[in-house]
Specification:
The complex is a heterodimer of chains A (115) and B (112).
Chain A (H helix, E strand, L loop, with lengths): L2 E5 L2 E5 L4 E8 L5 E7 L5 E7 L5 E3 L5 E5 L4 E6 L8 E8 L8 E3 L3 E6 L1
Parallel strand pairs in A: 2-11
Antiparallel strand pairs in A: 1-3, 3-8, 4-5, 4-9, 6-7, 7-8, 9-10, 9-11
Chain B lengths: L3 E3 L3 E4 L5 E7 L5 E8 L3 E10 L2 E4 L6 E7 L2 E6 L8 E8 L6 E3 L3 E5 L1
Parallel strand pairs in B: 2-11
Antiparallel strand pairs in B: 1-3, 3-8, 4-5, 4-9, 5-6, 7-8, 9-10, 9-11
Chain lengths: 115, 112
């Protein structure tokens, strides 16, 4: 069974500061990992995904995440926050397909960006 | 572009009613999902389907059932709606292993 823990339900940073959103996963098989973003009153949009290729994954809007198997982590980072990054971010884990192909989300981290 | 369409954006139903939420995708995806989203609880998986007529329970299946008679359509059924099922319901679909899921715009259901 898969599960996801996102540390910190709310993170606040200043514009231009580093963004770090934490995600730890549990999976009985090598996982597929995803980060999604949800802007206010909008649907979910994929930021990036890890599918067992490179461990450092680059996504849209300057975000990236590093898969660390030893730490079972997939933290999301961005070197310099913009006001437009204010949103809710969700980490998700998936197993293999068929009956094991469920997609499990964390509780989300709401990012605020101060001017 | 992949399109996942949920039949209603907003629904108001009475306690005890049978409620159908419909979801249609146009990309021939094998996998479809139903989630509910509540503040502070993230997205919780209700059911998913990995093929026509195949389904698996998620984390919170109680009070819900699903139907997938055709590949493109996945229905969520509230057999007897209750006020604690007031929530945002999100449908998603996904193709082969490791690919991203695409989401519908959501149905905000209020049970009164």
């Amino acid at each position: 069974a898969q599960s996801v823990t996102q540390l910190g339900s709310h993170v606040s940073v200043s514009e231009g500061a580093l963004v770090l959103l934490r995600c730890n996963y549990s999976s009985s098989v090598p996982p597929y990992l995803f980060w999604y973003v949800q802007y206010p009153n909008q649907g979910l949009q994929l930021l990036l995904k890890y599918t067992s290729a490179a461990t450092l994954v680059k996504g849209i809007n300057g975000f990236e995440a590093e898969f660390k198997k030893s730490e079972t982590s997939f933290h999301l980072t961005k070197p310099s926050a913009h006001m437009r990054d204010a949103a809710e971010y969700f980490c998700a884990v998936s197993g293999y397909g068929g009956s094991q192909g469920n997609l499990i989300f964390g509780k989300g981290t709401k990012l605020s960006v101060k001017p | 572009d992949v399109k996942v369409t949920q039949s209603s954006r907003y629904l108001v139903k009475r306690t005890g009613e049978k409620v159908f939420l419909e979801c249609v995708q146009d990309m021939d995806h094998e996998n479809m999902f139903w989630y509910r989203q509540d503040p502070g609880l993230g997205l919780r998986l209700i059911y998913f389907s990995y093929d026509v007529k195949m389904k698996e329970k998620g984390d919170i299946p109680e009070g819900y059932s699903v139907s997938r008679e055709k590949k493109e359509r996945f229905s969520l059924i509230l057999e007897s709606a209750s006020t604690n099922q007031t929530s945002m319901y999100l449908c998603a679909s996904r193709g082969r292993l490791g690919t991203e899921a695409f989401f519908g715009q959501g149905t905000r259901l209020t049970v009164v």
